[in-house]
Amino acid sequence: MPKLEQFEIKKYWQIFSGLKPENNKVNHDQVLPILFNSKLDSSVLNKIWFLADIDEDDDLDFEEFVICMRLIFDMVNKNISSVPDELPDWLVPGSKVGMIKERKQNKQREAADLPSERPPDVDWYMSPEDLVVYEKLLNSAEKMTDGTVTFPSLSSVVRSKFYNIGSSDMNQVWNLVNPKRKASIDKDPAYYFIHCLRQCNDVGAKIPGQLPRAMADICNKESVSYDLNDYKPDMKREESSTSASNNSGVKNSTTTTASATGVSGGTSSDQEISALQAELARLDSELSSVQSETSKLPAENDPAVVRKQLEGLLKFKRDRIQQANNRSQMGRPINNNSIRDDLDSIEEQMTVLESYLENKKQELQQLKAEIQSTR
């Protein structure tokens, strides 16, 4: 970016004077035609205005106007590819150096006061609507004959739905819901897998190191095996023990064995029922505690309340804009003097620009003449 030349400052002074500054300053409305004619994006123009308005009074004195014009011309002429975040030292007027330092200090102070952003924890509550979504995703995955689902099958479905999830995150969550490193998991761990990755994708939640106790118990439980061959060795041992008994009391031995087996089976069933009832009671207790904690949350944390407030704010802003437009369109008396002044101002600007164009043409002719003389 070349430094300012004296002829540039004279050119900017001519433009500045043509805008009819008040108290040696021009406001945004006065500079707006120049900004608009540059054809630059509004975000670029806003950044240029922010950099030029060093004293932040929403007006530009001549020194600030020079900064604004120079940045605009550099962007239009492709001397720079983007607006700098800070003004270069050679573009800062001597009278504004102290203000620039103060602005930097304020920015650093504001950055220090901002709280560090910490990724939210995973909220393990799954609403009925969530479960419907997860069930559809799970049903679209290819399942094993026993109804379980493998990592490749489930991860391909999740990857097609959540685009901000990487392979390492999927592996980490899979190991989280599959602590026994099985080849496939059943429905509940699959729901936990999808739910955790969905929160990581949507809100950037941090993947936890462990599951809540109730969920961990479900993921650690053994799946029921329906393979009858697994029980054949026990049957053989039982048969061998039966055949080793006294041949004369075969009938009594068989009856005794059968009755013992019945008692053993009944005891095992009772134990399983008791364990399931205890597990159910514990889950009910945890569900009640979660519901009680949820009911204590303030109403402003309710997404529906927040949405209603934001919609109300949006409606208020739209009403204000509409009122402003209505006021501007109301039958105000036309100020002929104001229109005449505007026309005079435009004519003066046209005169300045024509003079500038004529000077440039003369310079071009001189350059052509010099080039012709050197041949």
Automatic annotation (TrEMBL):
<keyword id="KW-0472">Membrane</keyword>
<dbReference type="InterPro" id="IPR025604">
    <property type="entry name" value="End3"/>
</dbReference>
<dbReference type="GO" id="GO:0005509">
    <property type="term" value="F:calcium ion binding"/>
</dbReference>
<keyword id="KW-0479">Metal-binding</keyword>
<dbReference type="Pfam" id="PF12763">
    <property type="entry name" value="EH"/>
</dbReference>
<dbReference type="InterPro" id="IPR000261">
    <property type="entry name" value="EH_dom"/>
</dbReference>
<feature type="coiled-coil region">
    <location>
        <begin position="273"/>
        <end position="370"/>
    </location>
</feature>
<keyword id="KW-0677">Repeat</keyword>
<dbReference type="GO" id="GO:0006897">
    <property type="term" value="P:endocytosis"/>
</dbReference>
<feature type="compositionally biased region" description="Basic and acidic residues">
    <location>
        <begin position="230"/>
        <end position="240"/>
    </location>
</feature>
<keyword id="KW-0009">Actin-binding</keyword>
<dbReference type="GO" id="GO:0003779">
    <property type="term" value="F:actin binding"/>
</dbReference>
<dbReference type="GO" id="GO:0016197">
    <property type="term" value="P:endosomal transport"/>
</dbReference>
<keyword id="KW-0967">Endosome</keyword>
<feature type="compositionally biased region" description="Low complexity">
    <location>
        <begin position="253"/>
        <end position="269"/>
    </location>
</feature>
<protein>
    <recommendedName>
        <fullName>Actin cytoskeleton-regulatory complex protein END3</fullName>
    </recommendedName>
</protein>
<keyword id="KW-0175">Coiled coil</keyword>
<feature type="domain" description="EF-hand">
    <location>
        <begin position="40"/>
        <end position="75"/>
    </location>
</feature>
<dbReference type="GO" id="GO:0007015">
    <property type="term" value="P:actin filament organization"/>
</dbReference>
<dbReference type="Pfam" id="PF12761">
    <property type="entry name" value="End3"/>
</dbReference>
<keyword id="KW-0254">Endocytosis</keyword>
<feature type="compositionally biased region" description="Polar residues">
    <location>
        <begin position="241"/>
        <end position="252"/>
    </location>
</feature>
<dbReference type="InterPro" id="IPR011992">
    <property type="entry name" value="EF-hand-dom_pair"/>
</dbReference>
<keyword id="KW-1003">Cell membrane</keyword>
<feature type="domain" description="EH">
    <location>
        <begin position="130"/>
        <end position="222"/>
    </location>
</feature>
<dbReference type="GO" id="GO:0005886">
    <property type="term" value="C:plasma membrane"/>
</dbReference>
<keyword id="KW-0106">Calcium</keyword>
<dbReference type="GO" id="GO:0030479">
    <property type="term" value="C:actin cortical patch"/>
</dbReference>
<dbReference type="InterPro" id="IPR002048">
    <property type="entry name" value="EF_hand_dom"/>
</dbReference>
<dbReference type="InterPro" id="IPR018247">
    <property type="entry name" value="EF_Hand_1_Ca_BS"/>
</dbReference>
<feature type="region of interest" description="Disordered">
    <location>
        <begin position="230"/>
        <end position="271"/>
    </location>
</feature>
<feature type="domain" description="EH">
    <location>
        <begin position="8"/>
        <end position="98"/>
    </location>
</feature>
<keyword id="KW-0206">Cytoskeleton</keyword>
<keyword id="KW-0963">Cytoplasm</keyword>
<dbReference type="GO" id="GO:0010008">
    <property type="term" value="C:endosome membrane"/>
</dbReference>
<comment type="similarity">
    <text>Belongs to the END3 family.</text>
</comment>
